[in-house]
Write a structure and sequence with these properties.
Layout (H helix, E strand, L loop, with lengths): L1 H16 L67 H8 L9 E7 L7 H17 L4 E7 L4 H14 L2 E3 L4 H9 L7 E3 L18 E3 L4 H15 L5 E6 L2 H16 L4 E6 L8 H13 L4 E4 L3 H11 L35 E3 L20 E3 L2 H4 L4 H4 L10 H22 L3 E7 L2 E7 L6 E5 L2 E5 L2 E4 L3
Parallel strand pairs: 1-2, 1-3, 3-4, 4-5, 6-7, 6-8, 8-9, 9-10
Antiparallel strand pairs: 10-14, 11-12, 12-13, 14-15
Helix pairs in contact: 3-12, 6-7
Length: about 475
């Protein structure tokens, strides 16, 4: 307070004395006597007035924010610009599902002692595919036994409650159902009647589509593969008297002759599953005298290894020591992928040559052999294969293939259930599938399997 009064007093004295500064800059806080007009302090310089700053440029328009739509349980998603709002709003409110409901019946011989394990593998694959993409579909598993009448009775009851039926699995059951008057709903059979695909075979009913794993169809495709590699070559087909091998040999021969090329067939004895050593010696001599353009093995993997070992130049042909059986510990084959001499003849086969599941031979008897098999077995990095779980417990190669059949059976049934008539293709785990169903005539199904070549005892896919 005193300092304020002093300032006011100082200002008054300065005005009275003519002091030029309003502040008490003289010693003692007062203007010096006689300082008026002569010893006044210079006035402080006048600062120029501050210029206003230029206006900043306008902010650029920010890009539209990216919005992520996350559907939470119990929360309806916003309508999409690609879907009509009315349909999507109704679907979100439960008034209209994305696809109408479909009831599927899976008819399998799960009570059969002989086919129970195979049926369970198909069921596991089918349900794995359903769990991944239910798509408003309900599945009822219908158990049957082996007897055809049991299967027909179960089918008749299933038709009353199901929209589409998948099954039966047994060849005889499929034949009985195809010949019966029961078919009234879309039905996907998991096998083929005897003689299906051959000349003169009766067509299936219009409501039935058969999509089983046919080794005979594989043999026909192998014939086409071999014909593309070796046009107009003479093929020698080698099999045993086992029924399934005879069917495979006949299917290859028919397709090969259809291509206009010559074919020769040889059937070897196989006591206890092993090829006859004396017969292998005779076969070797015959091939030396008149070699064909290629060989086709309609046999199993072990028997084909015996054959390849017998044709190798390292195997003795002396009749006193015909060591060709795998049970007799054949010497290892030479290092090249295809042994020299007769062992270098091009050799083709079916998926029967792929034991799979880690059971392929670490030796090289089959290296260079070409075959067909399912993507599930030889293309584990295939996009369609990678999305489905593999069985937890180790299974045989045949059970793995049936598991894959179950996956593709669901995918085909799902498509037919939502689109009962039309033609479509699927990149399946059992091959490239093409289906024509519900067009008024007999349904058609085609499966193209990828080709593979054996390297270091393991089939590796070739081509696209």
């Amino acid at each position: 307070m005193n300092s304020v009064r002093l300032s006011l007093l100082c200002a008054a004295v300065a005005l009275a004395s003519g002091c030029s500064t309003p502040f008490c800059d003289a010693p003692g806080g007062l203007c010096a006597p006689g300082s008026a007009n002569t010893s006044a302090l210079p006035a402080p310089p006048v600062r120029p007035a501050a210029q206003p700053l230029p206006k900043p440029p306008p902010e650029p328009t920010p890009p539209p924010a990216e919005v992520f739509a996350v559907t939470l349980p119990g929360v309806s998603a916003a309508p999409s610009a690609d879907v009509p709002a009315t349909r999507q709003d109704e679907a979100a409110q439960g008034g209209l599902p994305a696809n109408p409901p479909v009831r599927m019946g899976l008819l399998l011989p799960l009570r059969s002692e002989t086919l129970g394990a195979a049926a369970d593998a198909v069921r596991a694959g089918f349900m794995a595919a359903w769990e991944r993409d239910r798509d408003n579909i309900t599945v009822s598993v219908i158990e049957t036994g082996d007897v055809a009448q049991d299967v027909l009775s179960a089918y008749a009851h299933a038709q009353e409650k199901q929209d589409i039926i998948v099954g039966p699995l047994a060849r005889s059951a499929v034949a009985a159902l195809a010949a019966s008057p029961l078919l009234g709903k879309p039905t996907i059979a998991l096998n083929y009647p005897e003689g299906h695909g051959t000349a003169g075979a009766a067509p299936l009913p219009p409501q039935m589509l058969a999509m089983g794993l046919s080794i005979e169809e594989e043999a026909r495709q192998v014939a086409q593969l071999a014909a593309a590699d070796h046009p107009n070559a003479t093929a020698m087909i080698i099999s045993t008297g086992t029924p399934w091998q005879r069917r495979v040999a006949a299917a290859f021969a028919a397709q090969w002759q259809r291509n206009g090329a010559a074919v020769r067939m040889v059937e070897l004895s196989s006591p206890d599953g092993y090829l006859s050593d004396p017969e292998l010696v005779q076969l070797r001599a015959r091939l030396r005298d008149d070699p064909p353009g290629l060989l086709f093995s309609a046999m199993s993997a072990d028997q084909t290894r015996q054959l390849r070992g017998a044709l190798g130049d390292n195997v003795s042909t002396e009749p006193t020591n015909p060591i060709f059986s795998t049970a007799d510990a054949l010497p290892p084959p030479p290092a090249p992928a295809q042994p020299a001499g007769l062992g270098g003849l091009p050799l083709y086969g079916t998926s029967a040559l792929n034991a799979g599941n880690g059971n392929n031979s670490p030796t090289q008897e089959l290296d260079g052999v070409r075959l067909l098999d399912l993507p599930w077995q030889i293309q584990r990095d295939h996009p369609a294969v990678m999305v489905y779980p593999h069985p937890v417990q180790a299974a045989s190669a045949d059970m793995e293939r049936l598991y894959a059949l179950g996956i593709d059976a669901y995918r085909v049934a799902r498509e037919i259930g939502h689109h009962p008539a039309g033609r479509f293709s699927l990149d399946g785990v059992t091959g490239r599938l093409t289906v024509d169903f519900g067009q008024g005539g007999a349904a058609s199904f085609e499966r193209i399997e990828p080709a593979a070549v054996v390297r270091n005892g393991v089939p590796q896919p070739i081509g696209p």
